[in-house]
Amino acid sequence: MSRAFFFRLGAVVVGLAVAxxxxxxxxxLFRPEEISLLLADERLGQRYRRSFEQERYIPESGRRIRxxxxxxxxxxxxxxxxxxxxxxxxxxxxxxxIAATAVAEEETMVARLERGLNAASSxxxxxxxxxxxxxxxxxxxxxxxxxxxxxxxxxxxxxxxVSNDVADNSHEVSSSTRPYARVDAAGELSIxxxxxxxxxxxxxxxxxTLVYPWHKLVLRxxxxxxxxxxxxxxxxxxxxxxHPSAELERAWEMTFRLLERFCDEVEAAGSSFLLAxxxxxxxxxxxxxxxxxxxxSESELPSFDRDYPQRRLAxxxxxxxxxxxxxxxxxxxxxxxxxxxFGRGHWNVAGNALAAELIQRRLEGEL
Length: 367
Fold this sequence. Notes:
alpha/beta, Rossmann fold, five-stranded parallel sheet, 13 helices, globular
């Protein structure tokens, strides 16, 4: 009986291995371009493949996009650390909203802002993109320390997305693999790059196979489909809950600590700091908002406030004297007759153009 059991177990293992190898070969034959764009990074959690350029089909936008990542693993061309003579610089930090891989590089908010400033100003401008999919505020702060500060920007813009950045800053609310900030017993804020970062064998599989990232994508889509069918609101959208849970309130407080530290470090380096608040599509699109409310129970409905995150962030910025730009009014005005995002997803071409216009309008009176 024991011999038969191990024979069957061995047959199952061999069969599973053959199935995985067959799937890997099939993906490489029919979908060779789907190897992960993101690589694990010991200091930042992850960044894009360095010195990478390839055209890929992006399902969100339904078209092929030429993607280029520079030698540091961020979107765009390589730039020298020392700015060209007479050139002013802006470093833009954020997550996938800023990386904007669903639109062409020249259509991103960052590229449009650079073109707009150069067209409207007698000065030369470079606007550098330090957005990476999945980045929290803590990771953006690490990216400033490790990478973007070396470029000595005149201005650092942190684009804060209300629909996930509060949750992403808390290891209690988010379970994603990334560095998290913590406050020690003395009340000091610290970011341990290895906190919440789990590499092991999954790192090699993620970076060198197609089947591993493919199965992660399938599982992610299944979770999203389940939440939609079950009427479960994502943790990130709880930022619009005006009566946050204890865990979410701690996430808000951690967010404020991180933003304050970010501003202090940037200004200590001699640069200016601007906190730009990017709205969730539900905040400027009535149809998306209605669909979101449909996921809530009757008892939850009174707690959700479309403008709550902006009011809270504006109050924080005013108290800390942090330069602040709320993009929500402009997006509500720009919503009339124009679709600005891919459904509940990222900004589309029009959304990137509007964001660049709103930020440029703010900067032209200050820089």
